[in-house]
Write a structure and sequence with these properties.
It is built from ten helices and six strands. It is an alpha+beta fold. The protein folds into two domains: about 1-100 and about 140-190, Gyrase A, domain 2 (2-Layer Sandwich); about 195-244, no CATH class. The strands form two sheets. A four-stranded antiparallel β-sheet has the order 1-2-4-3. The protein has a two-stranded antiparallel ribbon with strand order 5-6. A hairpin with a 2-residue loop joins strand 5 and strand 6 (about 240-244). The radius of gyration is 22 Å and the shape is globular. The relative contact order is 0.14.
């Protein structure tokens, strides 16, 4: 997989601080804020972390994500407050696309190859791509461009960094966070998993998570240090119509 940050809000920190100050009497101009010391900017930013988050909607990030499965993108686009442009299967012949084996079973690759051969035969026989695509595997590789504001990325990080999330989604989102950190290091502390941000588990019934024994600790720095050394992926199974 490959995750690239292809566009983002410049002067993002100053924009955040200015929009916060706009709600107050005696507000500073954005020009004044640009000349604040880094220490003063971070003091105001840290205050913002625990206040109304509407200002964070003024900062946007656009990512190009490739070499991922359609299973992943089906989950990604459930985030309603995002914008998306995805590679089409309706008009594009995708016979040469990879099918990503996420279970390391050799039978998986054989079956995937047979499906792509059948798909190619259907296209060659004159069947429309929009009809032939119905037999394609969910794990066929795809690419997508997506845009989120910082408030949405914060809300996504609470759950999509969580061990309860599918492993591929965890890995993609960690790379997205790394991209944001590269251009805006101050945003890292706003992009935390739920148990680090709130100090409690988002899925308390999921007792297999190795983080649960640590969530009683109120120190975000300590929780983040523990979380950074954990690698875990849930395998939920629906029983009686309910995911356990």
């Amino acid at each position: 997989m490959d995750v690239k940050l292809i566009n983002y809000t410049r002067n993002a920190l100053e924009t955040l601080l200015y929009t916060k100050n706009t709600r107050l009497q005696g507000k500073q101009s954005i020009r004044e804020i640009k000349y604040w010391s880094e220490e003063k900017k971070m003091e105001h930013f840290n205050y913002m972390l625990d206040t109304i988050q509407s200002s964070f909607e003024f900062v946007d990030y656009t990512f190009e994500i490739s070499g991922v499965t359609r299973a992943f993108t089906h989950q990604l686009v459930r985030t309603r407050t995002g914008s998306y442009a995805q590679e089409s299967q309706r008009t594009v012949d995708v016979r040469d696309s990879d099918v990503i084996n996420t279970c390391s079973d050799p039978m998986y690759d054989k079956i995937a190859e047979a499906i792509l051969d059948s798909y190619a035969s259907m296209i060659d026989a004159g069947i429309a791509a929009q009809d032939a695509r119905g037999i394609l595997p969910t794990n066929i590789a795809t690419s997508i461009i997506c845009k989120f504001d910082l408030r949405t990325l914060h809300n996504m990080s609470l759950l999509r960094l969580c061990t309860r999330t599918q492993g591929e989604y965890q890995n993609v989102f960690k790379q997205m966070v790394d991209c944001v950190k590269d251009v805006h290091p101050w945003a890292e502390q706003f992009l935390r998993v739920h148990c680090v941000w709130y100090g409690v588990c988002a899925f308390p019934r999921y007792t297999e998570c190795p983080m649960q024994e640590h969530t009683h600790k109120p120190d975000r720095v300590m929780l983040q240090a523990v979380f950074d050394h954990i690698k875990h992926e849930a395998r939920p199974i629906a029983k009686g119509g309910m995911t356990q």
